[in-house]
Design brief:
383 residues, alpha+beta, FAD/NAD(P)-binding domain, D-Amino Acid Oxidase, Chain A, domain 2, 2 domains, eight-stranded mixed β-sheet, 8 helices, 21 strands, 29% helix, binds flavin-adenine dinucleotide
Length: 383
């Protein structure tokens, strides 16, 4: 086997085996796509599969509604991934036999006073200028679409191409589809070290055992820079960004249809009756405590745009750590460390980006081509 570095891509001749560190949506989705191509894939997860940030997420696939002033590069891939999601979900359901609760009803971004309405109007004008398919609604028009909006909503933007998915069902489906494709899962398996090597990179477990393969993929989410064996400066620069989120249960006649995003919270209704209301965004290191202030803010922010949640049962509270890179954009591709590929830093959009990321990771690793979708997100930009 020959390993030569060509620009940002390590060309590894005929990849047959891949070890993936991390069983979140990124590791599982990439593993599934690789295994479908006949690669021998092992995923190592220190806890249970799919219980990290990917489990806590709300399930929004909101490329259009979330396009912000400084996020054009991110938007390009968000939009592409959103476009790939319906086929990705369909294939995943076929391969796993698990329904992933896909919904395509769109997102309403709402304002509930004049200041927020002005800010929303500026964002709307910017999004229109970027060619995004969004429409402006008066408060009354918005309530005609979604009667559960608060009477005080003064204006709204409808992003009708945005979708949503049941991210927990996706994780369950990925576990099944990955195994059906021949992949091997190792739970309760903490990887402590990576042993870079241009021919056979290794991973070392906390019990001292090790496994080699043609390529190692680091998809360990917010913990991606905790793995030893990579020199300082060569680790993916990822930090945890804490998110608290609550789960409510719909009861008749409350039947919210749209994903609703307000100034201080969002609400995401799922087909099984759950409504996720979130989320905080806190720079608190690896702290995963539920706090009174965090939950208070989310509930107040949700209640002021959809007051009907007041009487719903609060069934769960989750805390997830988003993997945020130094510029908050993903870190994708072969690193400068021989045989080691980074797939991390998906921050607020890992569920949305997983469709595109998984397919392009498999393409880069199996076919030694450079994905143009990752060109703005290479690990080398931090050198
Ligand atoms: C509250 C909240 C709401 C969100 N809502 C959305 C949303 O609506 N839409 C969206 O697109 N995104 C959303 N996100 C962001 C999204 O959840 C993340 O971007 C995505 O889950 C990241 O996936 P991941 O696989 O990289 O990380 P994770 O899901 O965290 O998976 C990483 C896995 O690696 C494992 N691991 C770590 N270190 C090791 C090791 N050394 N050895 C073995 N295993 C290891 C961990 O245990 C973990 O299971 C949200 C996030 C939060 C917190």
């Amino acid at each position: 086997m020959i390993n030569t570095a060509v620009s940002t891509l390590q060309v590894i001749m005929s990849v047959n085996s891949v070890n993936i560190i991390g069983g979140g949506i990124i590791g599982l989705a990439a593993g599934w796509q690789l295994a479908r191509r006949g690669i021998s894939v092992r995923i190592f997860e220190r806890g249970s599969m799919g219980r990290g940030a990917s489990f806590a997420a709300a399930g929004m696939l909101t490329a259009d509604a979330e396009l912000g002033f400084e996020e054009k590069k991110l938007y390009r891939v968000s939009r592409e991934s959103l476009g790939r999601w319906p086929a990705f979900a369909h294939l995943l359901e076929e391969d796993s036999g698990v329904s992933v609760g896909y919904q395509d009803q769109g997102t309403l971004v709402v304002a509930n006073d004049r200041d927020h309405e002005e800010a929303l109007r500026r964002m709307f004008d910017f999004q229109l200028g970027e060619g995004v398919d969004v429409s402006w609604l008066s408060g009354e028009e918005a309530r005609d679409l979604e009667p559960f909006l608060a009477p005080g909503i003064t204006g709204a933007v409808l992003a009708s191409d945005d979708h949503a998915v049941d991210n927990r069902a996706v994780l369950e489906a990925l576990v099944t589809a990955f195994q059906r494709a021949g992949g091997e899962l190792f739970e309760n398996s903490l990887v402590t070290d990576v042993g870079p090597d241009e021919h056979r990179p290794r991973i070392v477990m906390d019990d001292g055992s090790d496994f080699d393969a043609d390529v190692v993929v680091i998809a360990a989410g917010a913990w991606s820079n905790q793995i030893k064996g990579l020199e300082n400066g060569k680790k993916p620069p990822v930090r945890p960004v804490k998110g608290q989120i609550i789960e409510l249960q719909k009861v008749n006649p409350f039947d919210l249809k749209y994903v609703v995003r307000g100034p201080n919270a969002y609400l995401v209704p799922h087909l099984d009756g759950r409504i996720m209301v979130g989320a905080t965004s806190e720079e608190m290191g690896y702290d995963t405590r539920v706090t009174a202030g965090g939950i208070y803010k989310i509930l107040e922010g949700g209640w002021e745009i959809v007051p009907g949640i007041y009487d719903l049962s609060l069934t769960e509270i989750f805390v997830g750590l988003r993997p945020g890179s130094r510029d908050n954009h993903p870190i994708m591709g072969f690193s400068d460390v021989p045989g080691v590929y980074f797939a991390t830093g998906h921050f607020r959009h890992g569920i949305l980006h997983s469709a595109l990321s998984a397919e392009e990771i498999a393409l880069e690793i199996c076919e030694s081509v450079e994905s143009e979708w990752f060109s703005d997100f290479r690990p080398q930009r931090f050198a």
